[in-house]
Structure formats: C-alpha cells, structure tokens
C-alpha cells in the first residue's frame, strides 16, 4: 500500500465500499445508492469498464456473478411506473410464472419514448385512477418496488378494454379466494370505481 499514491488508495477504498454496498443490497447497486454515501457515479462506470460490475440498465449495476433484479432495474429506470396486471400478480405470488413481458402503469401526463429497450409494456391512466391502491412490494430478489395491491389488480385484469387471458384470471381469483388476508370490502369498493362490479361478483360468488 505504501507504494501507491493517494489517488490510487482512494480509488481502492471507493471500490471496496461499493462492493460492500453491492453485497448488502442483494448484488445490485444504483447511481443514487453510491451518491448517498458520497461516491461519484463515475466510480460505477469505471468498475464496469474493469468488469468488477455489470451494467444491467441505465444507472443500475450488478455483481457479474449474480443474475440481477430485472424488476428493480425497471423501477429505478422508470421511477413513476407501478407494476400492473400480470406483473403485480407475479409480485403478489398469485401466478406461478415469471412474465415474459413486464407491465407498468404511468400517469397520463407522463411522457415515455415509444421505443423502450426493455421487456416492458407501458400503460397510461388518468391520475385519479392511477393513484388507487399503490403499495411497496418485495421483488423476488428482495428489492422494494411499486405495485398495485391485490384487490386493485383483480379489477385491472378483468377490465374489458385490456382484459388479461382467462387462465391467468382464473388462477388469480382462486389464489385470492385462498388468501387469509384478503379484503373483500376493498375489492367491492374498487370494483365499483373501475366499473367491473358485475364481473368481480360473478367470480367471487363461485369461489367464496
């Protein structure tokens, strides 16, 4: 160490601190993560150049030995988005398959490019509907992301405009019927707001 200059030692210290942060954060780190501990985001880019990290998405880096958290990366990249429909079902453990294409909902005023380089389908909605039922949910890799709650999601998947496939709806409804913490009052309330009361009642009369 005594042969290294001050700048080289500082670079080593920053690298070690970043690697510790990556380890404590389930193998993933973002620009904002390192900036909160006083390290420049340029350090992440430099570490990626030296293959100490791998760039998963703009501003998101992972340990090359881990698979990374696609959903957390999408949440970081599109911070206004809320995981929606099948993606929300997956986060709540109501369907047993990882979506091929993730779905996120955004406020209608939000601008996003038509060509998004990610496995993501994007929706927009008026603010008074967009805001209903948002909560923080843990991703499969242990990171917190935004998703709609279970009751809101059931209303979303039966809406005629963008109806989810019948098998997914059936699996989700059956899963809900078996939940001990379901809130049927909230489900009925949401079904009226989203104008799917008839559809929701039909499923619930069979399952509950």
**Estimated structural class:** alpha+beta
Order of helices and strands: HEHHEEHEHEEHEEHHHH
The termini sit apart by: 68 Å
**Number of H/I helices:** 10
Detail the poorly predicted runs.
1-5
Number of strands: 8
Rg result: 21 Å
Strand content: 15-25%
Most strands sheet: 3 strands, antiparallel
Strand order, biggest sheet?
1-3-2
- What's the average pLDDT? 89
Globular, elongated, flat, extended or rod-shaped: what is the shape?
elongated
Percent in helix: 40-55%
SSE inventory with pairings:
Elements: H1 6-24, E1 28-30, H2 31-36, H3 41-49, E2 54-57, E3 60-62, H4 70-77, E4 82-83, H5 86-91, E5 102-107, E6 120-125, H6 127-130, E7 134-138, E8 144-148, H7 150-158, H8 166-177, H9 184-193, H10 197-207
Parallel strand pairs: 5-6
Antiparallel strand pairs: 1-3, 2-3, 4-5, 7-8
Helix pairs in contact: 7-8, 7-9, 9-10
Description:
It is a single chain. Helix content is 45%, strand content 16%. It is an alpha+beta fold and 208 residues long. The strands form three sheets. Strands 1-3-2 form a three-stranded antiparallel β-sheet. The relative contact order is 0.11. Mean pLDDT is 89; it is low at 1-5.
Provide tags for this entry:
three-stranded mixed β-sheet; single chain; three-stranded antiparallel β-sheet; alpha+beta; 208 residues; elongated
Describe this structure in a few short sentences.
This protein is α+β, with helices and mostly antiparallel strands and 208 residues long. It contains ten helices and eight strands.
């Amino acid at each position: 160490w005594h042969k290294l200059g001050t700048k080289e030692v500082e670079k080593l210290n920053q690298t070690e601190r970043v690697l510790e942060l990556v380890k404590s954060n389930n193998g993933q780190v973002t620009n904002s993560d390192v900036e909160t501990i006083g390290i420049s985001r340029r350090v992440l880019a430099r570490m990626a150049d030296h293959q100490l990290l791998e760039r998963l998405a703009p501003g998101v880096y992972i340990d090359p030995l881990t698979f990374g958290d696609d959903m957390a990366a999408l949440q970081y990249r599109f911070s206004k988005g809320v995981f929606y429909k099948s993606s929300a079902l997956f986060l709540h453990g109501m369907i047993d398959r990882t979506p091929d294409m993730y779905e996120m909902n955004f406020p209608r005023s939000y601008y996003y490019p038509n060509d998004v380089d990610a496995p993501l389908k994007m929706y927009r909605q008026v603010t008074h509907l967009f805001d209903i039922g948002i909560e923080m949910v843990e991703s499969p890799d242990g990171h917190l992301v935004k998703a709609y709650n279970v009751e809101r999601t059931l209303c979303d998947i039966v809406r005629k405009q963008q109806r989810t496939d019948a098998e997914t709806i059936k699996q989700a409804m059956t899963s809900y019927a078996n939940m001990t913490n379901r809130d049927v009052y909230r489900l009925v309330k949401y079904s009226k707001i989203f104008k799917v009361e008839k559809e929701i009642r039909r499923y619930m009369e069979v399952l509950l």
